[in-house]
Amino acid sequence: LARAITLIESKRTDHQAQARALLTALMPHTGKSQRIGITGVPGVGKSTTIEAFGELMIARGHRVAVLAVDPSSSRSGGSILGDKTRMSRLSTNPAAFIRPSPSSGTLGGVARKTRETMLLCEAAGYNVVIVETVGVGQSETVVADMVDIFVALMLPNAGDELQGIKKGLIEVADLLCVNKADLDERAAARAVKTYAEALHILEPASPHWSPPVIPISGATGAGLDKLADLIALHAQKLTASGERAERRRDQQVRWLHALIGERLTESFRAAPMIRDRMVALEAAVAAGEMPASAAADTLMAEFLRA
Ligand SMILES: Nc1nc2c(ncn2[C@@H]2O[C@H](COP(=O)(O)OP(=O)(O)O)[C@@H](O)[C@H]2O)c(=O)[nH]1
Ligand SMILES: [Mg+2]
Question: So what's the pLDDT on residue 207?
Fold first, then answer.
């Protein structure tokens, strides 16, 4: 599995061709896992919770893969997901597989590798795949679009935090967990209530599922059984209604279109006549001498002519 992933992450053209052939051959063996996305601000307890939750799922008889989509890795090389050493227990468990995100690349590139790694993990027999990401920038919508259920971890100080919550995060979450409930149970209960009310005014994405809000503690493990039960219930309901299959179909097609867009942009930027003209037209647009739309049309026309 690790070798196959290295192949997928490789930038060499021959490796990429091999990776494509491998993935194509493995397609019939993919798709049989429960795909779970987990997000939350740095420090909310994602790694701690995933480790305890992963152990619980293994105790329930599952094989668990943990992948990361880390938007910070693209530019600084630094990680906002933090050290992976926190999952030291899970990483030595033979029924677990842990893979940090590739250390370079755009968010789109990292997400592509993560999607393909997910398929490899499924083919290797992992029936629970957890994708961890931070709730900053675009990474949470990117991850929400590759999983069956998207779980957001929150801190118990909801009053302060609610102000800063991006509406987008709550809108894509299928399940909200108020973590660190062990620190102050009453504060956690208040936060659960606040989030439940905030969710109540939103139209649920599915007619068969209203996102629940529960208190948990990744540190003590409290609430994680409930979390596992709710995830199983979500899978059961949305599979029965056909929504899960539909969601996956839509995700695949959106992914296809994203890839096409990415490749077109790449070949556009790499085209020699574009590179030369781009500099001049960029300057003209920057100086306000030419409308951006006219510059784009000119470049596109040249690209298509070549
Ligand atoms: N008391 C308490 N501390 C926690 C809990 N979950 C995580 N922490 C602590 O919060 C800090 C950040 O946790 P971590 O899992 O690295 O957060 P991440 O950045 O979201 O991955 C660490 O010091 C953890 O030990 C919890 O449920 N209760
Ligand atoms: Mg972490």
Answer: 87
Among 116, 113, 149, residue whose Cα is nearest residue 130: 149
Residue 51, strand partner residues: none
For 59, other C-beta atoms within 10 Å of its C-beta total 10
Residue owning tokens 């053209």: 13
Q: What is the pLDDT of residues 82-131, one digit of tens each?
A: 655 568 899 899 999 998 776 667 777 788 889 999 999 999 999 999 99
The residue whose C-alpha atom lies closest to atom 14 belonging to ligand 1 is: 45
226 Cα: distance to centroid of ligand 1 (angstroms): 19
182 lines ligand 1 (CB under 6 A): yes
pLDDT band at 80 (very low <50, low <70, confident <90, very high): low
Q: Ligand 1 atom closest to Cα of 153?
A: 20
CB 1 within 8 A of CB 113: no
Ligand 1 atom at minimum distance from 48 CA: 15
- Quick check: 289 pLDDT over 80? yes
**Ligand minimally distant from the alpha carbon of residue 46:** 1
Instruction: Decide: 72 in ligand 1 pocket, CB within 6 A.
Output: no
Is the confidence at residue 229, as pLDDT, over 80? yes
How far does residue 179's CA lie from ligand 1's centre (Å)?
9
